[in-house]
From TrEMBL:
PROSITE patterns found in the cross-reference section: HTH_LUXR_1 (PS00622), HTH_LUXR_2 (PS50043)
Pfam families, per the entry: GerE, VpsT-like_REC
SUPFAM superfamilies on file: C-terminal effector domain of the bipartite response regulators (SSF46894)
Protein name, per record: Helix-turn-helix transcriptional regulator
Keywords, sorted A to Z: DNA-binding, Transcription, Transcription regulation
Domain HTH luxR-type per the UniProt entry, residue ranges: 149-214
Length: 220
């Protein structure tokens, strides 16, 4: 099947026969090649510039450090990414899902393969695949974010807020400069000022700050 939204699919899992068989099933069902890697092996992947990536994550293969490694991967590769979680527990909390930059699908451990294939096709068509319960929890979480956003953005200029929105989407300095029609040096200056205001030391910490303060939920 054709997919205009994502030009690369990555499957984060362990190096097991079961994972290989699942990857093969998805490739056949979706008619799209999928790269398989561990979370630690992400940095070694070779991808074209400005890739739009859909990352399928096996929940049984991630831990508390996985999100940091994944975000570092997005920043280093200067690309945007969306995530799909498989083998998720039925009681997964919405706040855990919301920590990932752009979670577009969640499949539970008991889901049949046919359900996963159907849901993945919907995701590749640009739709979300989330349970009604999880969707309601996420909506409630986003509705409650307004006061937090107002407080956290108070000290940033309009231009600095725009840069942070692009930063949390994984844009590089050059991509930010092109989007905002400014020089790369101007972007670096703005980022330096933002780092001081939010008390962080590097791009990774700034990314996490922007994510935690819902900058990817604000309209550009």
């Amino acid at each position: 099947m054709a997919c205009d939204k994502y030009n690369n699919l990555i499957f984060i899992c362990d190096s097991s026969l079961q994972s290989s068989l699942f990857r093969d099933f998805l490739e056949k069902s979706l008619d799209i090649p999928i790269q398989m890697t561990t979370i630690e092996g992400l940095s070694g992947l070779t991808l074209p510039e400005k890739s739009s990536v859909l990352v399928i994550i096996d929940n049984t293969h991630i831990n508390e450090d996985s999100l940091d490694l994944y975000i570092k991967f997005l920043i280093e590769k200067s690309m945007s990414g969306s995530e799909v979680l498989i083998n998720s527990p039925n009681n997964v909390a919405a706040n855990l899902i919301a920590k990932w930059p752009n979670m577009v699908g969640v499949f539970f451990a008991g889901d049949e393969m046919s359900v996963v294939a159907k849901g993945m096709k919907k995701v590749l068509e640009g739709e979300l695949w989330l349970s009604r319960k999880l969707t309601n929890e996420l909506i409630t979480s986003y509705r409650n974010k307004d006061a937090i956003v107002a407080k956290s953005t108070a000290n940033l200029t309009t231009r600095e807020k725009e840069i942070m929105q692009l930063l949390v989407l994984g844009a590089s300095n050059i991509q930010i400069a092109e989007t905002l029609f400014v020089s790369e040096n101007t972007v670096k200056t703005h980022l330096y000022n933002v780092f001081k205001k939010i008390n962080v030391k590097n791009r990774m910490q700034a990314f996490m700050w922007a994510k935690n303060n819902h900058y990817n939920d604000l309209p550009l």
